[in-house]
Amino acid sequence: MGVAGEQCGDVLFMEPGGLRDLLRGLAGESALLSPTRTEHGFDLIRVEPGEAAVDPPWNGARTIPPLKGLWFRPAAVVARSTPETSGAGLDPAPIAVYGARACDLQGLAILDRVLRDHVFREPVYCASRERNLIISGDCTEPAESCFCTLLGGLPHPTAGFDLNLAPVSGGYVVEVGSARGRALVGQHTGRFAPASSEQVEERDRARQQVEERVRRQNERFATREPFERAIEKNLKTRIWGEVAATCVECGACNLACPTCHCFQLQDAAPSGAPLRFSLWDSCISAGHARMAGGGTPRLQLTERFKNHYYHKFVSFPRNWGVTACTGCGRCIDVCPGRIDKRSVLLQLETRWIPSEVAEVE
Amino acid sequence: MNDLQPMRARVEDVQVETPTIRTFVLRPERPVPFRAGQFVQLGIPGIGEAPFTPSSSPAVAERLETTVLRTGFVTNALHALEPGAEVGLRGPFGKGYPIDHFRDREVLVVGGGVGLAPLRALLYHLFSAMHWVRRVVIRYGARNPAELCFRRQYAEWAALERVDFLETIDRPAAGWNGRVGLVTTLLDDLDIDIPNACAVSCGPEVMLKFVTYKLLDIGLPPERIFLSMNRNMSCGMGICGRCNVGPFFLCKDGPDMCYADIKDIPYALG
User: Fold this and answer.
1) Concatenated DSSP letters of A294-344
2) Binding-face residues of A in 267-326 toward B, CB within 8 A
């Protein structure tokens, strides 16, 4: 299974016809989500059984929506009025995802820590995560907003998949990443052959080229110090008001983020029986930390904006050992204020004025 | 085990403390062992839940009391409850008061308003442990005489050996002959052994701020000031994301924080 699964390490080759058959089979037995081109880019759309839409390969960056909503639902019933029935409804249909990118898998690895593997188990997340199959793919056409390499990531998956596909001449180099992936290969043995060393070399060359491209397009955003340091030394400066000047507080960055996981619990009884819902929340919205009686510790947008960066790059790493940003760049694409996280982080470093610290204190 | 699923608790009694504060005596379906300062999520099915630190003795797990100020959606609904009602309860959460720091010290307890509720659980604990605490000095303030919480117990507490209790109200009021002024005024000429003292405070955030400044003024080091920082705690496990003070999540790292740990965090006390 996914992130925690053992690395099987098999490297195989499959032709496009084999992949089509494999996906067609998956669409019949589970909810298959596949990147599908729309006027805005690649959306993640459910493939109906027998539908001809599964037409690999697809060349693109990550999909517009993050994958997280498949497991960490925007709205989910997480508890019921009586403990006896609390398990009911938490039996989600199996999900198969085709075309996940490395940044998607990193986002999922982060959510696994927070929502499953540590002190807390989000019931819907855990139940649906158990029954998923993830076929990822090497990133072939990174978007301009992609910056995984600035966060130490790579544009091709290295863990967290059941199968990973890398397009090469005449088909795909397939890497098996889990027992579940191995079982899938076992069901379609005739479709797979061992990959030749030439095919693996072709894959690796393509990987290097894509990685180089992502690095090059982010050279101008590279900071000398870690992001954490740039944020910490600006905790009391006024720069936040400037970098947040065009923020309209819509929270799209939170919705599009593969790692954002703030949620609020809401109790309601829509059809008589009390239910407890978990709803996605946004740290940018004014009500995020508001308390009973109306007070809030982060009344000003600039405080909330700062907290957003502080949490992702300073406090989350301290609490969880990993940065809560994968560099997928979705927040850049969706921001109506054209706020670019890379630019904000760079400005925190380059525009820092030590004397300001005293001014604001 | 579903962390978000409350257990049931029956409201055995409702005690009217002040016009805005009621104490709910709860019997949960299973015992809830808690340490003083830890909090529970108390909710009404279909309405919502909110965090409260029990005000009863942590020595009793089968029956706990929460003392609730009517101030919002959930607390309004709680105040409408009568004995026999059923509520949902999750927890306990958080670390609780760092009792070990209080050993062989004079413990200064400073409360404001309903902030005396969590402190009462601590007081019960300390009163049962006076053999290893030198003294307990309590200073408490409320807006007016009617809002003095647990007023029926003050005389009893003040009569205990090595326990000192003083209360004040914010402004003069008809029929009130006691002390007048914010609770910080009771800290001006404290008869305590500062080098061997530690302080615990719970109340509105603005009060915590000025109590802290006053305690620093009289020579208490940040390492021996502990503040109950109660914010919008929901999940109770540091996950849902809104009760943070800097890198700390009050629900798991607090709600009682050592001032030394938060003093350098901008706007930690508002």
Assistant:
1) S--S--SHHHHHHHHHHIIIIIHHHHHSS-S-----HHHHH-TT---HHHH
2) 267-269, 274-276, 278, 281, 283, 288-293, 295, 297, 303, 307, 310-311, 314-315, 318-319
Q: Which residue of B has its CA nearest to A286?
A: B242
Give the tokens for residue A191. Answer: 């479709």
- Average of pLDDT values for B213-226? 97
Residue among A95, A108, A109 at smallest CA distance from A33: A95
What Cα–Cα distance (Å) separates residue B165 from each residue in B67, B88, B99, B186, B262? Answer: 20, 35, 20, 11, 28
A261 lies within 8 A of chain B by CB:
yes
Residues of A whose CB is below 8 A from B244: 307, 311, 315
Q: Please tell me the predicted confidence (pLDDT) of residue A42.
A: 85
Whether B2 contacts chain A with CB within 8 A: yes
Q: Which of B149, B104, B153, B98 is nearest to B124 (CA)?
A: B153
Domains contained in chain B, CATH given: 7-93 (2.40.30.10), 99-228 (3.40.50.80)
Please state the ipTM of this predicted complex: 0.93
Give the Cα separation of A56 and B96 in Å (integer): 56
What would the pLDDT profile of A5-26 be if each residue is shown by its tens digit?
334 568 999 999 999 889 888 9
Shortest CA distance to A234 belongs to which of A180, A306, A285, A169?
Answer: A306
B76 and chain A in contact, CB less than 8 A:
no
pLDDT reported for residue A7: 41
Contact A276 B73 (CB under 8 A): no
Q: Output DSSP code: residue B238.
A: S
Q: pLDDT tens, A54-104?
A: 556 567 889 999 999 999 999 999 998 655 554 545 567 789 999 999 999
Question: Sorting pLDDT into bands at 50, 70 and 90, what band is A3?
Answer: very low
